[in-house]
Amino acid sequence: MKLCISGALGHIGSRLIRNLSIPGLETVYLVDNLLTQRYAALFDLPGDIDFVFKEIDIRSEEMGSIIGDSDVLVHLAAITDAEKSFERNDDIEEINKEGLASVARLCADEGCAMLFPSSTSVYGSQSELVDERCPEEELQPQSPYADSKLFGERLLSRLGMQSDLRFVTFRLGTIFGYSRGMRFHTAVNKFIWQASTDQPITVWRTALTQKRPYCGLDDCIGAINFFITNNLFLNDIYNIVTTNLTVKDIIDVIKRYLPDLGVSLVDSPIMNQLSYEVSNRKSLDLGFTYRDDLESSIRDVLHKLKHVNSGITHLNM
Question: Residue 245: which region, alpha, beta or left (left: phi > 0; alpha: psi -120 to 50)?
Answer without folding.
Answer: beta
